[in-house]
UniProtKB/TrEMBL annotation:
Its main location: membrane. This is Oligopeptide transport system permease protein. One of its GO terms (cellular component) is plasma membrane. The lineage of its organism: Bacteria, Bacillati, Bacillota, Bacilli, Lactobacillales. The keyword Transferase does not apply.
Length: 341
């Protein structure tokens, strides 16, 4: 028997307690979500792009004012109008040369009009710098979208949590109100507010906020209905916590991920909606520039000066696409099961 014991050797962990140790560090919900988000390279690039644009939009207000973007000299319009983009490098389309509308000859309007200054994105029909107007337009479009989304967040979350928490006939009446608001076209609301408040940034923000909070309220209500039956919420009720504390400490923190994803999807829709309103004349007042108003003003020049409409359109597409891609990445990071379905 002793010979058989000597023939066998212990394989594996010698210490029994060592096998029960957890070598992988524990991660919180937000740390785990950030770990998964970093694996999505497209979402990370979109996130840094949006951070850079937001910082640039805030900093640009100190060196590119709205008055500078709108100002032009009536005596120098013929000299500075419709200048092509010029970055000072021999790159076709960006070297200050353009073709005449009535011929195929390539000319240099900067040399013809004795213009020494280089306009990176060219000028419009009044000789105003398109680069400055795009910067101001991006700032106004982001301001409208973020402000409207913030109001949408406050109204939608409060309305959805209160409706689901009370339940019964209160929930039924509040949901019927949502259905009535949803049945009213957004354009009707914007037109009414434009008649009362006048067309401008304020009326657009209020119009978007009054119509877009419905989706947020429905989403928050459905999540509150499922969360309020969980054990930790029932335990908080038995301990005597008020409904407000339960909502702030237990309900809303557990749906923060879904709310953030919904915000990322709401901001681009608000930007596009503002651009549509500006394009049909219900947006910001001239000569104030937004991305939508720049696109609308350059429609008649598309055939002869396409850069005047392509540049603000490209900025609008990039910003909207970045928000959408980041929203998709956040959705997969907060709910890994969604990417597997």
């Amino acid at each position: 028997m002793t010979k058989m014991n000597e023939a066998f050797a212990v394989v594996g962990i010698l210490n029994q307690h060592a096998g029960e140790n957890i070598n992988k560090p524990t991660l919180s919900f937000w740390q785990d979500a950030w770990r998964r988000l970093k694996k999505n390279k497209v979402a990370v690039v979109s996130m840094w792009l949006l951070i850079g644009m937001l910082l640039f939009a805030m900093v640009s207000s100190f060196f590119v004012s709205q008055n500078q973007a709108n100002a032009f000299n009536t005596n120098e319009v013929t000299r500075y109008k419709n200048l092509p983009p010029n970055i000072g490098l021999p790159i076709p389309g960006w070297n200050g040369q353009s073709k005449q509308p009535v011929s195929s000859d390539t000319t240099n309007p900067y040399e013809q009009n004795d213009v020494s200054q280089h306009y990176l994105f060219g000028t419009d029909t009044l000789g105003r710098s398109i680069a400055k107007r795009v910067i101001v337009g991006l700032r106004i479009s982001l301001l409208v979208a973020i402000a409207a989304t913030f109001i949408d967040l406050l109204i939608g979350v409060s309305y959805g949590v209160f409706s689901a928490w009370r339940g019964g006939w209160v929930d039924m009446v509040m949901q019927r109100i949502i259905e009535i608001i949803s049945s009213i076209p957004n354009l009707v609301v914007v037109t009414m507010l434009a008649l009362v408040l006048g067309s401008g940034v304020t009326s657009i923000i209020i119009a978007i906020a009054l119509t877009n909070w419905v989706n947020m309220a429905r989403l928050v209500r459905s999540m509150t209905l499922s969360l309020k039956e969980q054990d930790f919420v029932l335990a908080a009720q038995n301990l005597g916590e008020s409904p407000v504390k339960i909502a702030l400490k237990h309900l809303i923190p557990n749906m923060t991920g879904t709310i953030i994803v919904q915000i990322m999807m709401t901001v681009p829709s608000a930007i596009i909606f503002e651009a549509v309103l500006s394009a049909i004349g219900l947006g910001v007042k001239p000569p104030t520039a937004s991305l939508g108003s720049l696109i609308s003003d350059a429609q008649n020049m598309l055939q002869f000066y396409p850069y005047q409409i392509l540049i603000p359109s490209a900025i609008l597409v990039i910003v909207s696409l970045a928000f959408i891609l980041l929203g998709d990445g956040l959705r997969d990071a907060f709910d890994p099961r969604s990417s597997e379905e």
